Amino acid sequence: MRTAFYISDGTAITSEVFGHALLSLFPIEFEHITIPFVETEQHALEVISQIKSSFEASGDRPLVFYTMVNVEIGKIISNSPGINYDFLNQFVAPLEKVIGVPSKPEKHRTHSIHEKTYDIRIEAVNYALANDDGSNLKDYQEADIILVGVSRSGKTPTSLYLALQFGIKAANYPFTEEDMGDILKLPPVLRRFKDKLYGLTISADRLHAIRSERRANSRYASMPQCRMELREVENLYRKEKIPFINSTKFSVEEISAKILANTGLKRKKY
Amino acid sequence: MRTAFYISDGTAITSEVFGHALLSLFPIEFEHITIPFVETEQHALEVISQIKSSFEASGDRPLVFYTMVNVEIGKIISNSPGINYDFLNQFVAPLEKVIGVPSKPEKHRTHSIHEKTYDIRIEAVNYALANDDGSNLKDYQEADIILVGVSRSGKTPTSLYLALQFGIKAANYPFTEEDMGDILKLPPVLRRFKDKLYGLTISADRLHAIRSERRANSRYASMPQCRMELREVENLYRKEKIPFINSTKFSVEEISAKILANTGLKRKKY
């Protein structure tokens, strides 16, 4: 199997995302090795040895995706025996011409605590945790968005992703049987913040499968119960004109991107 | 201000990460606009109008970072009046030559629920939540790693990041005054899993600031208390040879990358 290296003097997240997206266009498997924080020439030389060993062991030249702010260390990596992709740098000179401003690379500009929105993201994570699963009903005026839906429809991971990645304060509230009674009505605590509500739904099959992993053979996990709850929430979304998304076939990344696109909610971080 | 567009028929996460990393090399501000899930020609034409309006309003040609699996839609975007970066595609043909396999682009290959590790990530998030802040001491045998440290030293956001991004099951345990007594000893529940422990520490100034936002003027937030607790945990880490990291100047992304690099812990997802 061919190896792909992701190397940086920072987290190497950019190299990973770029390299992984590129390699995912090919119908074959790769071995992935990330080496972050290569900040000394000594470390860079060790990395070169590792690339060389991988080449010798597999017979295939490794693919090396790297970003380096330090020019000297970048030069060392650029001489690795792999196929080296200095994939950001090659765009820099043409972009300098376009925008008429010289680049000024500095370390740790992305994915760093020095980003001005970092504290906002951590505060949003704390908010999401404190307001997870209807555990706190009194801080909804602070919410950027309140995700609603039945238990296990994807609210919690989506709230956390919105917080961690975008600094968005997302509360989430589960509709339970107590809310349902004869028919599901919008609880008063949510009606006050109706403009912030965003619904999740999911197919009954998938909900049944997810709940069965938690509590096999329970009424909670049974198909009739799943169908009933989903019918109630979907009716409520339509009646109250609450925007909603069916999460069955989507990842948290996709659900979050769709919510942002549909609501126009402004992220705090890019 | 010049505008940067991030456009895709998927989440546009790859475009955002690439474009943001490139623009962060320049000492100027940009306006950022993400447009995900551009899956029809009609939508693509609307995007072109939006790019055109932005150009006319600002007088500066927008920067357009895009990835498109659908060739026809890609062509439409490639004719936008902005400066268009089809930044992945230009690497594809040379890479095909290198690896001797034709590319086979398919939609939603990255950041999708169809990634085989998706369920593992969601399970890891649920694990991190259930094992947050010492709330559950009986499932540590399932943990890939157990983060330890004083209250507010960064354990929870790091656990969640490790889970969401990498599918790593991270529990976290806060050392409290109850654990400290005269001197902090390793609680028996942790000693059984000593190989999984990873310590966090933080500067007393920063801990004092974070705790003061939570409980101003409390003993909990006071400098002497912060100093005492940090001295105890750092002594414990050294005595018990628990690897640890000072989180003061690092983001969750950086802390997580360093933990993976230092422990050799295998991520479940790339």
UniProtKB/TrEMBL annotation, chains A, B:
Q: What is the top EC class of this enzyme, as a single word?
A: transferase
Asked if Membrane is a keyword of the record, the answer is no
Matching InterPro entries, A to Z?
Kinase-pyrophosphorylase (IPR005177), PSRP (IPR026530)
Molecular function (GO) terms for this protein are:
ADP binding; ATP binding; phosphotransferase activity, phosphate group as acceptor; protein serine/threonine kinase activity
Q: Any idea which positions bind ADP? A: G149, V150, S151, R152, S153, G154, K155, T156
What EC number is given for this enzyme?
2.7.11.33, 2.7.4.28
What PANTHER family does the record point to?
Answer: PYRUVATE, PHOSPHATE DIKINASE REGULATORY PROTEIN 1, CHLOROPLASTIC (PTHR31756:SF3)
Q: What does this protein do?
A: Bifunctional serine/threonine kinase and phosphorylase involved in the regulation of the phosphoenolpyruvate synthase (PEPS) by catalyzing its phosphorylation/dephosphorylation.
Q: Which reaction is this enzyme known to catalyze?
A: [pyruvate, water dikinase] + ADP = [pyruvate, water dikinase]-phosphate + AMP + H(+); [pyruvate, water dikinase]-phosphate + phosphate + H(+) = [pyruvate, water dikinase] + diphosphate
| Superkingdom of this protein's organism | Bacteria
Q: Which UniProt keywords apply?
A: Kinase, Nucleotide-binding, Serine/threonine-protein kinase, Transferase
Family the entry assigns: Belongs to the pyruvate, phosphate/water dikinase regulatory protein family. PSRP subfamily.
State what protein this is by name: Putative phosphoenolpyruvate synthase regulatory protein
Tell me one Pfam family matched here.
Kinase-PPPase
Question: What is the scientific name of the source organism?
Answer: Glaciecola punicea ACAM 611
